[in-house]
Amino acid sequence: MTLKKTVFFGLLFLSTISAPSLAIDSIHVECSTCTTETQFYNAAKNEAKNTTRFINIMNFKNYELRKFRASKTANKVCEDDREPDGRGGFIQICKWEYDYAIVSAPITNEELYLFTDLADSVNDANKYYTQRSIEIPSTIVTSGYELIGAGYKQTKVTTYFNQLPLKDSILEKLVVVAGSASKIVSTGIKFEMPALVFTFSDGVKAYAEIDFVDMDDQTHFKFTKLIDPNGNPIDLTKSNPFTEKYYNFSKTSLSSWRVFRSALNAYDLRIIGSSNNTVPTGTVAITDCSGRSPTGSDTICRNSN
Question: At what angle do helices 109-131 and 167-182 cross, to 10 degrees?
Fold first, then answer.
C-alpha cells in the first residue's frame, strides 16, 4: 500500500474501529487532563450509555489507563404543578433522572501493552511535530492572524506545506499512530490527533490536525488554534474564535496589530479606544458590539470602528 493510501485509510480508521465480535462493547477515550481517580471516573461517567459497556479512559502523556464497566438508566420523574390542566387535573412537570452503575474493571496485560504502544506513537508524533515547527515565509502569509476566518489563507499555508520535502516524514508518523490504534480491540476510539505547528514571521503559531490525504497526494488540514507571542489564544474551531475576554499585545508589531484588529472587527468585536495607528499597551478588554445600534444613543462601539 502506498504512503498516501495508508494515511488516508488510517485516518478514517481512527474515527471508529469496530469489533462486532465483542460480547460487551468496549470504547477508548482520551482524557489528557485526567490525573486523579475522580477525574478518570467522571470521564467514564460522561461516556456512559443506556447499555453496559467497557469504557477505557486514556492519558497518553502520563501513560495512564483506567477501565470501567459502565451503564446508566433513565427514569422519568413527574410531579403535579398547582396549575390546572383544563381537564380537571393539574399540569405535570416532568424531568429525566439518571442512575449510573460504574465500577473499575481489570486491565489485561495485552490491553496494557497495546495502550502503551499507542501512547508511545502519539507522544513520539507530538514531540516530532513540536520540535519541527514549519516556518511560513511572509511572502506566503504575512501574519498568522490572517488565518482567522479566512479559509483561502489557510489554503495558501496548506499548499506551501504540500511542496515541502519533509511532508512524507511528517505523514509517516501518522501511519505509525494509525497502525497502533488499529491493534486495539474497540468499538470506538476517540483521541486528538497530533497537531502540526506552523510558525509565522510575526511570531504567531498555528496548530493544525491532518484531516485527510486526497488521491492526488495532497494533505488537507483542520486548523484548530493560534497562539501569538503574548500567549493570546484564538480558537479556530469556534464560531467566535476570540474566546478570551482580555488580551495583551506587548509583543505585537503595528502591522500584526492591524491584521488582528481587522479580524476582530469582522466579528463585530471591538477594543474600545483602540486605533489602527497604535498598538494597545497593557491588558485590554474585548467588547461585543453585535447587539448595539451604530446610530443609537450608545456610541461606544460606533466611535471605535
Answer: 170
Mean pLDDT lowest for which of 249-258, 275-284, 287-296?
287-296
Cβ-Cβ contacts under 8 Å for 167 (sequence gap 6 or more): 161, 219
Quote the cell numbers at residue 34: 485526567
**HSE-CB of 272 using CA atoms within 13 angstroms:** 11
CA distances from residue 56 to 39, 131, 148, 273, 295 in whole angstroms, order as listed: 13, 30, 36, 51, 56
Segment among 32-46, 105-119, 195-209, 291-305 with least mean pLDDT: 291-305
Q: Where are the alpha helices (DSSP H) in the chain?
A: 3-15, 37-47, 109-131, 151-161, 167-182, 254-266
pLDDT of residue 77: 87
Please state the φ and ψ torsions of residue 76, each to the nearest 5 degrees: -90, 120
3-class state of residue 290 by DSSP: coil
Q: 171 near 210, Cβ under 8 Å? A: yes
Phi first, then psi: give them for residue 103, nearest 5 degrees: -135, 150
pLDDT one-digit tens code per residue, 9-41: 444 444 444 444 455 788 999 999 999 999 999
pLDDT digits (tens, 9 = 90+) for 282-299: 899 998 887 754 444 355
Say if CB 232 and CB 223 are below 8 A apart: no
CB-based contact 11:174 (threshold 8 Å) = yes
Could you state, in order of their start, the residue ranges of all structural domains in the chain?
A: 243-305
